[in-house]
Specification:
The chain has 530 residues and is an alpha/beta fold. The chain has two domains: 2-142 and 378-529, FAD/NAD(P)-binding domain; 145-207 and 324-376, FAD/NAD(P)-binding domain, CATH 3.50.50.60. The strands form five sheets. Strands 1, 2, 3, 4, 5, 6, 17 and 18 form an eight-stranded mixed sheet that branches. It is built from 15 helices and 20 strands. It binds 3-acetylpyridine adenine dinucleotide (N01).
Length: 530
């Protein structure tokens, strides 16, 4: 058994920054990464069209001014290959690779009560004992293909957007099917439609999407950011709900007259991106306001899509705009004007089973050479529960979370000492800009470990009552928003039998950070240190 101070799982942005910070504390660390390179979600999601929906100048690390000054983003919204290059550059520049063992999964991690350390086994039969154990596994890493009947008999090629092959895939001349119209589906569908002979999109729920209006990086815009990075990053930290600077309106949608409101939506639709969600301050809290934005987007869809039957199917009516993660697209709705693209509503035309040659629905059989699953993830908890994690008394994390995940501040779980959950359940995580959320968590965790060392404590763990109170607060805050009105992966609704709990913290990054800082300043209130 090899002794280490800290084991980290994952070499995405969370793992990379955790290595960088913990190394500065002089800890002996090793990170295990399933893939053969760094990048995490941007390593696996190499499907054509994959692109970040946060603007490039903001979706990056803030910890090194030299890094943010020297790196040049080429487009307003960065495509996956460039984000992957950035992650590789960070790993090389800060010499992080020497701490990473690639092609290796962690199989189990058991807290050993006699040593107060974690006993960890890996897929290459490695055995490690570590004082600290950090999960940097990401919120959207456990890709999921639903349990479709007959899938194992299907002879065509299958792909999941979140496990896309490294070799380019060419769909030219093929009949292709896509299941799923979330962010991934909406990005890949227009690209496949360019190549394939025919494309059938199997849609269960229509989704709201805003045009990205991606463009090459504007030199003046880049300069503005680079000249003001410290103050802009500080504003993102202290003035936003998500860690991303948007043009936030201070007005309510229902206070405006209809003409003014339309103008505002139109203006934001034309400039593109998630900024649309900030047209009015109450879009996520007042259903009447939200409906005005919904109506606007539905009207746009009907004006873009020529066939009005198809347009009606594409216009969402069953959830508030933004209650499922808002999508950002390039020519998504326009794609349905192409003669080789067909939309199949699988709420009416039910998927029955795969056959050896394609997909059988209640109305028709679709012959398909290739099937693309853009069916999403066992989000926010899947990547934790895929590993056999046991805390005190041999209790499994699976058992601790059987009624839904709970973690105090989204950082630690009661009875799992020295296990840190980076962007874990109950933290802003996926509702925030992820690199920002990771930065805040890793900074807090490294300060916490430094404080433990300084005060000669061996372990820290969440107290059950503090964890319960936090979980209640997370739930209450979610219910003040419209997020809970959709069957989304935020609530685990996409996974059969998953407890229906709103997992991320919807109260905003500022109060969340203040709470974390206050807890630390008050001798880690709500935690037990031994
Ligand atoms: O996954 P999803 P995703 N039969 O879960 C459908 C981030 N991301 O990979 O809505 C038929 O959103 C499902 O239908 P329904 C972003 O945070 C970001 O697209 O459950 N259909 C849905 O349409 C995003 O939210 C970026 O009825 C089935 C789709 O599959 C998150 O990742 C890009 C089905 C799954 O959508 C996940 O997005 C990509 C079934 N049995 C991803 N099961 C950017 O930064 C599922 N579906 C831009």
């Amino acid at each position: 058994m090899k002794n280490l101070d800290a084991v980290i799982i994952g070499a995405g942005f969370a793992g990379l920054y955790a290595i960088y910070q913990l190394r500065q504390l002089g800890l002996q660390i090793r990170a295990f990464e399933k893939g053969d390179d760094v990048g995490g979600v941007w390593y696996w999601n190499r499907y054509p069209g994959a692109r970040c929906d946060v603007e490039s100048m903001q979706y990056s690390f803030a910890f090194s001014n030299e890094l943010q000054q020297s790196w040049r983003w080429k487009e307003r919204f960065t495509p996956q290959p460039e984000i992957l290059s950035y992650a590789q550059h960070v790993a090389n520049r800060f010499k992080l690779r020497e701490h990473i063992q690639f092609n290796t999964s962690v199989i189990s991690a058991h807290f050993n009560e006699s040593t107060s350390r974690w006993d960890i086994t890996t897929s290459d039969q490695g055995q490690y004992s570590a004082q600290f154990f950090l999960m940097a596994t990401g919120c959207l890493s456990s890709a999921r293909i639903p349990d479709f009947e007959g899938l194992n008999t299907y002879k065509g090629k299958t792909f999941h957007t979140g496990q896309w092959p490294k070799m380019p895939v060419d769909f030219s001349g093929q009949c292709v099917g896509v299941i799923g119209t979330g962010s991934s589906g909406i990005q890949i569908i227009p690209i496949i439609a360019e190549q394939a002979q025919t494309l059938h999109v199997f849609q269960r729920t229509a989704n709201f999407s805003i045009p990205a209006r991606n463009q090459p990086m504007d030199d003046d815009y880049e300069r503005q950011w680079k000249d003001n990075y410290p103050s802009l990053r500080e504003r993102a930290k202290t003035e936003t709900t998500s860690g991303t600077l948007y043009t936030r309106s201070t007005r309510k949608a229902t206070e405006m007259d209809a003409v003014e409101r339309q103008q505002e939506y139109k203006r934001r639709w034309q400039t593109g991106g998630v900024n649309f969600m900030y047209s009015f301050k109450d879009l996520m809290t007042d259903i009447k306001s939200n409906e005005t934005a919904e109506d606007f987007v539905r009207a746009q869809i009907r004006s873009i899509v020529k066939n009005q039957e198809v347009a009606n199917l594409l216009a969402p009516t069953d959830h508030p705009l933004g209650s499922k993660r808002i999508c950002i697209d390039t020519n998504y709705f326009q794609t349905y004007n192409k003669s080789n693209v067909t939309l199949v509503d699988v709420k009416l035309n039910l998927i029955q089973s795969f056959t050896s040659t394609g997909l059988q629905t209640s109305h028709a059989h679709y012959k398909l050479d290739a099937m693309v699953f853009a069916t999403g993830y066992d989000a926010m908890t899947g990547s934790f529960l895929d590993i056999d994690i046991r805390g005190r008394h041999g209790n499994t994390l699976k058992n601790a979370w059987k009624e839904g995940p709970k973690a105090y501040l989204g950082l630690m779980v009661a009875d799992f000492p020295n296990l840190f959950t980076i962007t874990g359940p109950g933290s802003p995580s996926i509702l925030a800009q992820m690199i920002f959320a990771i930065g805040q968590h890793v900074d807090w965790i490294s300060q916490c470990i430094a404080d433990l060392q300084k005060n000669k404590f061996t372990t820290i763990e969440a107290k059950s009552d503090a964890q319960e109170q936090w979980a209640t607060h997370v739930n209450e805050v979610a219910h003040q928003t419209l997020f809970v009105q959709a069957n989304s992966w935020y609530l685990g609704a996409n996974i059969p039998n998953k407890p229906r709990v709103f997992v991320p913290y919807a109260g905003g990054v500022v109060p969340y950070r203040q709470k974390c800082e206050k807890v630390a300043a008050n001798d880690y209130e709500g935690f037990k240190r031994i």
